[in-house]
């Protein structure tokens, strides 16, 4: 555990050890299976027939056993099923049927990837077209394109116990029995399944020169419309989009059957069509999906255009009850016209998640939000959802052309998640054009996350147009972090317009971070108009930050209007930085009202800095007030003996009596020049300024150790790699500060190669405050994301994160080892400690 204190260090957790190797598949995988021979069909009861009897390869059956789930949550393998015992009846009972490799995440979700045994086997089948009559493909392995198969006129059970008929209602069958059709009939037998995972199973099926829609035609054999319990359908990584191109010209029926049969469902809520080489979504492809859809994954498809008719599907899938649409990877989207409408529909639905590439988000914002009359409009909620992705140029353009689009919620999101997109000029323009967007919380977050975005012009404009945004909570971080943002004239104006903003905390912050803004006139104005802001802490901070701003008159007034501010500590700070403010009259006055505040240290400091102040008359008055003791007298004797030798005999007796009357005291008063220097108190020295939150030190500690991702086969089909290591970040966050996280690019030890992956933390829970936090997705570009922020009071935190997933690592070079860093940062602290 490493503890980082405020303004001292930044904490890094080094995530390391991703080794990438350039290995590919070395050959065709062999299968141990009993393949059905010509005319060999199983005529026994379908439910009791094993998949091995049907001719399904053992490796494929084993994949089902290891990755499918039964109603009790166990895999068939865990329940004791084997390739020799697994039957069609067992398939019918499954809750999850999978032909993909599924990995369970810490949050209970699953990550799927193509299973090489399944993909290699299906890729090795014969799809070469023959003279098949009405069917475009008829081989020993496959029959595709027959309407009565794809539309479900022939039931799965009929195929399994009689064979594949040559036409609907006929009694002639293809020989040998096409094994692909048998597999699809097995899939269609999973009538109780709520999840069907076919990720990547067709990834190695080659495109046929005579039948280019082979992937869609194969997937069209899945009778989704008969699987009425199905909720999740995973079809990612099956090259379906490559078939779509020119489908109408070559074989429109395959595309028609795929969308009207496989993609038509009134039960499926989660549809995964990711990494399928789609470049366009026409007006029909999603037309059969019902309004129950709540998640649509089109990531990794490089889509360039989306037809208007898909708008309802996108908005339904992105609805506010946890829905999502993933368009990551489609950075070449033409964000205008129909495509813009579809994306805006999803954004405006109040969707919890619409994943867009940064380029798309910025293009959309520039095209739609910067123009007040652009169609379709993007709502405030939509703007807020893409705000973390916007560049500074985009935000500046929007504020310049359509400032009213930036609401307070949008600005707050920018301030906490993307403050670097804000500049001083942009904020000044926003305050002038749409001041209602400016809030105290936003200013606090901006000052903490991008201090340079607030200057004196910003403060002046906010004070003129939205003075209520200037509060103690926003003023403190501005004063501490944004050097030059406060001037004496501005502080004076704040005192006039927003006097409640000047508190002990904010005044201390101004004194320590923007001391030039405290002129003598301003301090006098504070003392006279807002005396409650003058405390021992703020008086000390003023003295240390700009002692020249204090005068004897000001101190005299403080002693009357803010008596609790006068302490030995605050007077020592005043004496150390401006001893002239403690003249004889002021010291005498304070001695009467605050005798305990004038100790030996204060006297030593005054005697050193301004010895003429200590006159016999003042010594007498200090004695009368009971402000002298033996140490104080010794200090005066060492630093200014004339103040004692000039006393009359009567005054000496008074001073001796007031200091305790001992012989040693009498010796000091009567013989001050004989007192050794070593017996004098030391003068006060200027000590480091106490931060406004001095009663609560901020800290960050990270546990979990280094995070390993192991080795990755760049020739494989991995799109996501997962580190099982969990991370826990705990500590204390002071008032108005924030805890943020960022990640750096990954690079080799010699710095010659690097790439920028995306890191996703799954389950995020703040145990200290008993609440779940949003999942974190970091791009490795140094951009900060706030985890815990805008605290209204100091608070502890204990954030636990599950395993980490890495995506977008395709820019890596094989044969290299890479390391990256995750930075955990309190407020705008920039120094570091490495774990």
UniProtKB/TrEMBL annotation:
Coiled coil: none annotated. Keywords: Leucine-rich repeat, Repeat. Residues 674-695 are annotated as: Disordered. The keyword Transferase does not apply. The keyword Repeat applies. PANTHER family: IG(IMMUNOGLOBULIN) AND LRR(LEUCINE RICH REPEAT) DOMAINS, LEUCINE RICH REPEAT CONTAINING 53. This is Leucine-rich repeat domain-containing protein. The lineage of its organism: Bacteria, Bacillati, Bacillota, Bacilli, Lactobacillales.
